[in-house]
Design goal:
30% of the residues lie in helices and 17% in strands.
Length: 678
Amino acid sequence: MSAKYSRRSFLRMSAMVAAGAALAGCAGPTPTPAPEPTKAAQPAAPTKAPEATQPAQPTAAPAAKYAEAPQLAEQVKAGKLPPIEQRLPQNPLVVEATEVGTYGGTWRMGMRGGTDDPSFTRILGYEPLFRWNADWTGIVPNLAEKYEANANATEYTFHLRKGLKWSDGHPFTADDIVFWWEDVQNNPDLTAAPPSWMMSGGKPGKVTKVDDYTVKYTFEKPYGLFIQMVASIDSRSMTQFPKHYGQQFHAKYADKAKLDELVKAGGFPSWKELFIAKVGQPDGGGWGPWGNVGRPLLFAWMVEQPYSANATQVTLVRNPYYFKVDQKGQQYPYIDKLVYDVFQDIPAMLLKATNGEIDFQMRHFNTLPNKAVLFDNQQKGGYHFFDLVQANSNSIVIHLNLTHKDPTMRQIFQNKDFRIGLSHALNRQEIIDTVYVGQAKPMQPAALEGTPFYNKQLATQYLEYDVKKANEYLDKVLPKKDANGMRLRPDGKPLTFAIEVANANQDQVDAVQFIVKYWKAVGVGAEAKVEDRSLMYERKNNNDLDAMLWGGEAGYNPILDPRNFFPWGNESAYAVAWALWNTGVTAPPAEEPPDWVKKFVTAFDKVKASPTWDEQVKAMNEILQMSADAFFCMGISTMPAGYGIAKNNMHNVPKSIINSWAYPSPAPVNTFTFFYSK
C-alpha cells in the first residue's frame, strides 16, 4: 500500500470507527510496539438509565500488603510522610486495572491558555461522591462508599469513606461538603443563586451533616434524578472545597484585618475575587484548584508548578494521599508527573505531537484536517490513534442572543421567522465538506438517532439550503434594504452584528467565515469576531453578546445538559438573561422570561421529580417537542468521528473513549491507571 493511498484512505474511512483503527495499522511498524488496547465498550446510544451500583467494590488488599511509589517510600523512610497504611482510608477504593502497572514516567500534554482549565478537569479533576463507570452505563461508588434514598426520593444519605484525606493529609469529612453548600453555594457574596442541579420543585435542597462521614441531602419535592446529578460533571464543586484551607480566604471565618491585607496584597477588588483565585469558582471551575501550590486536592496528582495568566508550563505530581489502589494493593497513580505545555497556537502543539513530545492528547489539535499529518508521522512520533465516540449533539451551535440589550436587536432575534430564514441560508454541506472533510451530515442541535430522546422535527427542521426560501422568511421580518442589498432594521439602521468565536476552536473559526458569507448573501450583515474564550465567556455571562458559536452537548442524554433545548443555565448563550432568572438569579443581567419560557422550567421539574427512567424519558421528550416548536438555536451537523493519540508505550489506554463534557472524558476511563512500559 503506497503512503499516498494509505493517507487518503485513512482520512476517508476515519468516520468508521473500526475501519479507522484498522487502517492506522497500515502505516507500517513503529519503533516501540503499541500495547494491546484496553477493551472498552463501543457504546451505542444508551437506551436506559445508568444504574447506580451499591457498593459492589472489592475489599482492598490487607493493609500490610499495600505498596507505593518508590519516591513516596523514600519520603516515609525519611520521616517526611506517614506510612501508606495511615495515608489511605480504612477501605480504599480498589479499581482493577486491565494491566497491573509499574511506577514512573512523565505524562506530557498540551493545553491552551485563558479558560482552558477543563484540560485539567478532564484528565484528573473528576472525583465526585459517585461517578460514571468507564462505558457510561452505570454509576459506581467513589468518595462515598454507599448511599440510601427514601421511598419518595426526597432524601439521600451518603456514607463517605472513613479516613479519606486531602493532598495535604487533612481529613476529608462531611464538614467540607457542608462548607461547600452553606458557605460557598449559599453565600450571596460568592454565588447569585444555588446551582440548578441542587434544586427540585424550584427550591434548593438542604445539606446536613449527620456525623463526620455521613451527609444527608433533603428536598421538598421528589428528586429521582439526583443520583445521576451527583455523578455528573456539574457536581464536581461538591467535593472541591477544603474547609480547613478555604476558610482563611472567607469573610465568615478569617480575621477581617488579615483578610483585608490579603485582598490588598493580591490586588483584588474584594475577598470574593481572592477566594476564587485561591480556592476556586463556586461551580468548581476556574484557576483556583490549579493555580496554587499547596492548595489541597482529592485528585491523583497535585499542583507543583501552578497555572497562571503567564504560565508556559503547568506541572502536577503524585498525591501521596490518593484513595485508590489496584488489585494488588498498589496505590494509584502509576505515573509520577503530569506536564502541560501552554500553547498560544495549535500548529505549535501539533508539531510537538508529530515529534513524539506529547504522550496522550484528545483536545485542541485533533481536528480532521490535522489527522493526515498525524497519520504520516506515527512512526517518527512513536504514537498510535484511539477513537473518540462522539456523544455531542452537534458540531457547531449558533446562538443568536434572544435577550439582547438592544431592544431592536432583541425584537429581530426573537422572531422565529428570522432564525428560520438564517437557517435556510446556510450551506451546511459545503461546511461539512470543507471543515469536516465530508464526515458528517446536516443536523440541528438534538439528541442523536438511536437514543430514546431522538426528535425528528428538532433534528431535521429548516436544514434545506435554499436561498429563495431564506429570503422569503427574512422578508417577513426585514423587508427593507439599502442600495447594496443589505437589510435595514425597523429603525432604519443597517442590520449588523458580531458572531463571537473562541480562537481555540479551529473548526468554528473556519466555519464562521462561511456562515458570514452565507448570511451576507441574503442581506444580513454579520461579522466574525475571533477572540480568546475567556473574553467571549465574560461577554456571554454579562449578556453582552450579539451572537456566538459553541459546540453542542447532550447527544446521548439531554436530561444531563439541556442547555440547547431551553434556557437552562449560563451555557444557554442564546438567552443568558432568561437562563439566569430560571436558576434563581434576580440581579442583572438576569431577567424574568415570558410565561412560555417559564413552562420549560416547570416541565423540567417534572423530569427531575420522575422516579423511573421511563418516566424521565417521557417527560424530557415533552420538553424536546416544545423546544422543536420554539427553535431557540441552530446547528451545522452531526459530530464527525473523533480521535486522539497515545504513545505506543503508554498502557491501559482504551481503544475507544466516549467524548463528552457530561461524561467528562477521558477521566472516567481511569486515567490514574495509565502507565509506561520500560
